[in-house]
Amino acid sequence: MEHSILVKILLMLMMAIVAIALFRRAGLPAILAYLITGVISGPSVFNWFTQQQIHSVAELGVVLLMFSLGLEFSLPRLWAMRRTVFGLGSAQVFVTAVLTMCISMLLGLNLSESIVVGSAIALSSTAIVLKLLNERGWLRRRHGELSVSVLLFQDLAVVPLLILMPLLASDGEMLSWHEIALAMVEGVLAFVALMAVGKWALPKVFDEVARSRSNELFVLSTLVVALVTGALTQWLGLSMALGAFIAGMLLGESQYKRQLEADIRPFRDLLMGLFFISIGMLLDFSLVITFWWQVLLLVVAVIIAKALIVFGLLRAAKETFRTSVATAISLAQVGEFSFVVLALAVNYELLEITVSTKLVMVAVLSMAVAPWLVRHSVDIARRLHGVKAIKQGDSEIIPPLEQSSDLVLILGYGRVGQTIARFMKTEAIPYLVLDRDPTRVTEARRAGEPVYFGDVAKRAILKQAQIKQAKLIVLTFTSSHVLDQVLPLCRQLAPEAKILVRTRDDEGMEALEEAGASQVIPETLEGSLMLVSQVLYQCGVPLTRILKRLEYERRNHYQYLHGFFSGEETDFTLELLHAVALPKGAQVVGQPLSAIPWEKLRVELRAVRRSGAEVESPELDWLIRPGDILIILGKPRRIEKAEHYLLQG
């Protein structure tokens, strides 16, 4: 029995992996892949698990999600955006929820059911919208700022919903305003109490945990804090997710915020995956097939209605037509927190399975079309406003330059690219820059810089940038997959040009040179050389000798900078230095260095220490004596084998 459950769990996880890979390739969010996995492994198809079996574990995903949301909750940020957050955000949630409640009650639902439906429809997908806005560089645009403000208020609106849900389920009786007010007061008191205690206790707890320098203890403490505060609020008759949100908010202002977020993310993502799988198990496909026309009609109605509500509110606030349309389209879908609301409603028996299935399908389908809507929101706004839309992926037309044999083409306009461009400008050297960050390009163009938007991995863009005229091409980005595409293309289009490539470290230098790089500049090693030069100069070493030493290192591919003694956190992909002390009984004592099979051991002898003196690259006829220390260079496992040979043979 236990083995069969294990096999079913493994099959479900394998199915989720395949589904995520396929959905990612199709440009769809991973949430949909989890939902499909739940449908297939649930009662509708294979019936491996029931929703109740998965949900008890999956609910922890919601707890960790709310903890992460609390970490991102910043009072200063909220105050800076208070007008749009509390003005536009509250208006959108209130109008959408009330309108949906009224329609639901006209269709025969009771007050509790209507509140649940209205709350679920009012929320949009923070994860999808923010990800797509960030990818396209629209977060700083007006419609991006407005979208973020509304999403922020929606996330905050989840908190009172978590307080209301247990109350809505109280014996199925009709709610009174007195009961709602009492529940809100209880929630506020619990909030204040946890804030008061946590503000004092939690930073001290994590100070002690941080002093231990144990990653395991830090991760465990993070999980325990999130779950204990959740359990405490549940004991008070509220939601576990509310307690986790408060704990995250208390720690969001601490210096441990980024570490907490990084530690919690793997557990959160895994458990949220299980949560969405459990939501998928709620779907009854026989009902979906029966009511398919109603589901499609609801999807269209929800998207259009939400878009019209946001558009109307923005126009009333005197926003421009195009900004209003782009924001409305971006927020027209149903969000992931809607699944949380619907799941809690099903657990509290607030919704019938027929209604919940329809709403889940509406949410799934609206989220499926959300990426397309967000990506094309600006173009749709342009078309509705009578302006011809710009095709996605099109780049700015680069005007022809004057013929110049000294042109420097800079690919990437980040911090490194901008620094290079400033020196080019100072020396009056003609240069041209390509970059894919639209905000950065816009800002630079306003300042009069010759920077253009374009994908440097495309042949047509590089030809427009007149790569054939370039004397020098500088690749400033460090992404390996981009380098793999761009470097061979640059070499093919400009066979005579010198190509300089920036990398993080010296890994793969030979491969880059074989692919066409004239010179590879590893910034980690160059930074080390610059620091060394300053140290030597301060110690009185003549500048000419320092420059010769630096040039020697560059010519020899930084050979002297390879290999370091390992620490606690060893990177087993790098070559390390290791000192082997040879006692009197060691196998190689009394033998010359030439007798040791260095090529077979696949390690390099760097130096020998004898009586406190070090001899670099000793002669092979060096006779080994007891007490000698051999300093060898190689991969960790090869060093282990070499040490074993030197000591025992």
Automatic annotation (TrEMBL):
It comes from Shewanella insulae. PROSITE patterns: RCK_C, RCK_N. Belongs to the monovalent cation:proton antiporter 2 (CPA2) transporter (TC 2.A.37) family. Coiled coil: none annotated. GO terms for cellular component: plasma membrane. GO terms for molecular function: antiporter activity; monoatomic cation transmembrane transporter activity. The chain crosses the membrane at residues 6-23, 30-48, 54-73, 85-109, 115-134, 146-168, 180-202, 214-232, 268-289, 295-314, 326-347, 353-374. This is Potassium transporter. PANTHER family: K(+) EFFLUX ANTIPORTER 3, CHLOROPLASTIC. It is found in: Membrane. GO terms for biological process: potassium ion transport; proton transmembrane transport. Residues 562-648 form the RCK C-terminal domain. Residues 405-522 form the RCK N-terminal domain. The lineage of its organism: Bacteria, Pseudomonadati, Pseudomonadota, Gammaproteobacteria, Alteromonadales. Keywords: Antiport, Ion transport, Membrane, Potassium, Potassium transport, Transmembrane, Transmembrane helix, Transport. It is a multi-pass membrane protein. Pfam families: Na_H_Exchanger, TrkA_C, TrkA_N.
